[in-house]
Amino acid sequence: MAYKNKTHRNTHQLKSRLNDAAYAALQAEALAREIQPGALVRDLTLAALRFKEDYGYLPLIDDVESDELDGFPALGELARELKIQPGALARELIRSALQAKREQDAMPQTNDKKLRA
Predict the structure, then answer these.
(1) Residue 106: which region, alpha, beta or left (left: phi > 0; alpha: psi -120 to 50)?
(2) What is the pTM of this model?
(3) What distance in Å separates the CA atoms of residue 114 and residue 90, rounded to the nearest whole number?
(4) pLDDT tens per residue across span 8-41
(5) I want to staple 66 with a disulfide (CB 3.0 to 4.6 A). Which of 44, 51, 60, 86 is the partner?
(6) Is residue 75 within 8 Å of 90, Cβ to Cβ?
(7) Longest Cα–Cα distance in the chain
(8) Are residues 38 and 4 in the same domain?
(9) Looking at 55, 70, 88, which one is the last position of a domain?
(10) Are residues 19 and 5 in the same domain?
(11) Residues 6+ apart with CB under 8 A from 29
């Protein structure tokens, strides 16, 4: 579909990718900022990418994975502080706990062998 009017083409592309409520919210925010909706989308995208560079994850996108951390807000804060995704932090903590358990389980066997000798 060819459009002679570039603004109309950009508007159609945004509308086709967003639901009506999301497009209306985008349009209202753009109007409040006195810019075109497409320019607002560009600014939001750049802001999200800057946030990811600074903090290592995209809020509301990567946080979906953090459902396993529900009830543990301190872990979510630690993940943000370490600039890693909450799910990655949970996996690392689990790996560390399993490794510590393996090491602990191996220690009594070593001590038992020393006592028998």
Answers:
(1) alpha
(2) 0.47
(3) 37
(4) 666 767 777 778 888 888 899 999 999 988 888 8
(5) 86
(6) yes
(7) 90
(8) yes
(9) 55
(10) yes
(11) 40
